[in-house]
From TrEMBL:
<protein>
    <recommendedName>
        <fullName>HTH arsR-type domain-containing protein</fullName>
    </recommendedName>
</protein>
<dbReference type="InterPro" id="IPR036388">
    <property type="entry name" value="WH-like_DNA-bd_sf"/>
</dbReference>
<keyword id="KW-0238">DNA-binding</keyword>
<dbReference type="InterPro" id="IPR051081">
    <property type="entry name" value="HTH_MetalResp_TranReg"/>
</dbReference>
<dbReference type="InterPro" id="IPR001845">
    <property type="entry name" value="HTH_ArsR_DNA-bd_dom"/>
</dbReference>
<dbReference type="GO" id="GO:0003677">
    <property type="term" value="F:DNA binding"/>
</dbReference>
<dbReference type="Pfam" id="PF12840">
    <property type="entry name" value="HTH_20"/>
</dbReference>
<keyword id="KW-0805">Transcription regulation</keyword>
<dbReference type="InterPro" id="IPR036390">
    <property type="entry name" value="WH_DNA-bd_sf"/>
</dbReference>
<dbReference type="InterPro" id="IPR011991">
    <property type="entry name" value="ArsR-like_HTH"/>
</dbReference>
<dbReference type="GO" id="GO:0003700">
    <property type="term" value="F:DNA-binding transcription factor activity"/>
</dbReference>
<keyword id="KW-0804">Transcription</keyword>
<feature type="domain" description="HTH arsR-type">
    <location>
        <begin position="29"/>
        <end position="123"/>
    </location>
</feature>
Length: 130
């Protein structure tokens, strides 16, 4: 018998139940445990977060400074920075009444380690010429 609850869908053996969070609400942050290559990839998957990282390459900036550089609202910049911070890609330091964000290159470590695993496989070695 099909599930008649709102937000429930059944497809074969796979079942997903959506959670209603209110009008316009959506999941913004990573779903994986912090400090894994999954969190880094999920953070980098969003084009706005990549734009925030690109803006921070020019140097540290506050939320307001980033919002002025990007076509995104200040609250949206704050949300994206939270995801980037939770994934380890940025860090912040309090500076008076604002927080100044900067890139944290160590945040890419889990992704580098994961990618290194592909370079060390037998199939990767076969593809190299000696």
């Amino acid at each position: 018998m099909p599930d008649s609850r709102p937000g429930a869908a059944v497809s074969g053996t796979l079942r997903f139940v959506a959670t209603y969070r209110g009008p316009g609400a959506r999941r913004v942050g990573p779903r994986s445990p912090a400090g894994t290559h999954h969190t880094v990839l999920e953070a980098l998957a969003d084009p706005t977060r990549r734009d925030v990282l690109a803006a921070l390459r020019a140097g540290p900036a506050s939320v307001g400074e980033l919002a002025r550089r990007l076509p995104v609202s200040r609250p949206a910049v704050s949300q994206h920075l939270r995801v980037l911070r939770d994934s380890g890609l940025v860090r912040y330091e309090p500076a008076g009444t604002r927080n100044v964000y900067r890139l944290d290159p160590t945040g890419l470590g889990p992704l580098h380690s994961w990618l290194d695993g592909f370079r060390c496989t037998p199939s990767a070695r076969e593809g190299t010429s000696t």
